[in-house]
């Protein structure tokens, strides 16, 4: 499978955002995760009346990928439903860091405009398995 480019990955995240279930915050988020074999996993935020039960778009996508045997992530596109470019929350930064500390993150707004950053910039000196050696 040919790898898709950054703009295409962001488009996949924008599309995934359509499925967001966000009746409590009203903030819809979509994510698209590119793996090193070219596969793409998408996700959206899924909220719950018991607020802490909700899950972010990035972790939805990552859990889908890992459960399908893909752990080597290269890029994650994330897009929110506001003019502000959406960056992953702290829990998602840590969740992604477990599998791909060197990955790239595309932080997008409602129109799919995005900034490209490294996960290591978003989570400097992150804690991982090697921290316990
Ligand atoms: N949210 C995400 O899905 N990803 C992020 O990176 C930021 C926050 C969701 C969680 C919640 O459903 C809503 O956005 C408001 O915080």
Task: Give short descriptive properties of this protein.
single chain; 133 residues; alpha+beta; Cytidine Deaminase, domain 2; 4 helices; 21% strand; binds tetrahydrodeoxyuridine
Question: Could you explain the architecture of this structure?
Answer:
It is a single chain. It is built from four helices and five strands, in the order H-E-E-H-E-H-E-E-H. By secondary structure, the protein is of the alpha+beta class. The chain has a five-stranded mixed β-sheet. A hairpin with a 4-residue loop joins strand 1 and strand 2 (40-44). It has one domain: Cytidine Deaminase, domain 2 (3-Layer(aba) Sandwich). The protein has helices spanning 6-17, 57-67, 90-97, 119-122; strands at residues 30-35, 40-44, 73-79, 104-108, 114-118. Bound molecules: tetrahydrodeoxyuridine (THU). Residues 22, 25, 27, 29, 45, 47, 54, 56-58, 78, 86, 88-89, 92 line the site of tetrahydrodeoxyuridine. Tetrahydrodeoxyuridine is lined by residues 22, 25, 27, 29, 45, 47, 54, 56-58, 78, 86, 88-89, 92.
């Amino acid at each position: 499978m040919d790898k898709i480019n950054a703009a295409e990955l962001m488009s996949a995240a924008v599309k995934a955002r359509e499925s967001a279930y966000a009746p409590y915050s009203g903030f819809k988020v979509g994510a698209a995760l590119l793996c090193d074999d070219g596969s793409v996993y998408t996700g959206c935020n899924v909220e719950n009346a018991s607020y802490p039960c909700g899950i972010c778009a990035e972790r939805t996508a990552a859990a889908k990928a890992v459960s399908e045997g893909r752990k080597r992530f290269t890029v994650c596109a994330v897009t929110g439903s506001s003019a502000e470019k959406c960056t992953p929350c702290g829990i998602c930064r840590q969740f992604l860091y477990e599998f791909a500390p060197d990955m790239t993150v595309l932080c997008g707004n409602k129109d799919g405009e995005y900034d490209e950053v490294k996960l290591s910039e978003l989570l400097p000196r992150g804690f991982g398995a090697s921290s316990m050696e």
